[in-house]
C-alpha cells in the first residue's frame, strides 16, 4: 500500500529487534500489569473521575525510557522527511497496550462488552495512566486528537513485538481518507463477505479492509482521515506498541507527500465536534462494527 494512493504505507521492519526487546524489558521492569485496575467500589465512587485517563505532560512512561533508537534511526528520518518535509515535529508519542482478557476484572469486561471504544483509562489506577490501555476500538480517524485543525500531521505506529491476527493488529480501510473528516461513530456497513461500505460527506466508498500484521520493529504510517481500528486482543501476553503523531514542516509548500495527498482530498473541513452523542438507551453505544467483521454474511 502506498501513502499517496491509499493513505497508508507499510514500511516493514526498520527498527532493530534487540532495541525493541530492550524497551519492552524496561517497560515490564517498571510495571506489574497484574495490578492495573481500580476496584469496582472505588470506580463507582468516581473518586478519580476528574483525573486524566491517558498519558500527558509529566505523565508519560515512554518519555522516561530510552527511545533514541527510534528518533535517530536513519531509515525513520528518511521516511518521515519524505512524507512531512525536513524538520518535521513530533506532536505526541506514547505507549499503547492491547490488554489481554485474563488481566481484566470480570466487572470491567461486563461494562465494556462490545462498546465502540474500549479505552480502559477510567478503570486504571491513577499512577498507571502513563500508558494508553485498550481492548479494541471501532473504526475511527486520528483527527480525533486535533479535531479543529487541518490534516497536517500523520500517525506512525511501531510494533515492538511480532503481531499476528490474534494480537489485536491494526485494521485499516485503504482510500477512506479521500472522503474527508467526519464525525464519530462513522457510517459503515457490511457490503458483502469481504467488502464494507463507508459513507461520509454525501459520498460513499466500497472497499476491502486490510489487517496490518507485522514483525517486531515494523513501522506503519497513515493520514489522519484514514479509518482504522482494532479488535480485542486474543493472546495471553499484552501487545505493546509505540504510537506517534508527527507534524509536517509548515515551511514546505506542496513539497512533501502529505501536501500532495491533501491536494486530492476535496473535503478538508475541520470538525466542530468529533463525537456524536450516543442514544440514551445505549443502543448506539453498544454497536461495534469492527468486532462483526468476522461474522458470516
The structural domain count equals 1
CATH architecture designation: Sandwich
Mean pLDDT: 90
Largest sheet: 10 strands, mixed
Encode the helix/strand succession as letters: HEHHHHEHEEEEEEEEEEEH
Can you give the helix content as a percent range? 10-25%
**What amount of the residues lies in strands?**
15-25%
Annotation field: number of helices: 7
Class per helix and strand makeup: alpha+beta
What does this structure look like?
- There is one protein chain.
- By secondary structure, the protein is of the alpha+beta class.
- The chain has a single domain (3-287), classed as Sandwich (Jelly Rolls).
- The chain has seven helices and 13 strands.
- The chain has helices at 3-6, 17-30, 40-45, 68-71, 74-84, 106-112, 257-262, and strands spanning 8-13, 89-98, 117-119, 132-140, 153-159, 170-172, 187-190, 195-200, 203-208, 210-212, 218-222, 228-230, 239-247.
- Strands 1, 2, 3, 4, 5, 6, 10, 11, 12 and 13 form a ten-stranded mixed sheet that branches. A three-stranded antiparallel sheet has the order 7-8-9, with no helix packed on it.
- It is globular and about 50 Å long.
- Mean pLDDT is 90; it is low at 277-284.
Question: How would you concisely characterize the structure shown here?
Answer:
With 297 residues, this protein is of the alpha+beta class.
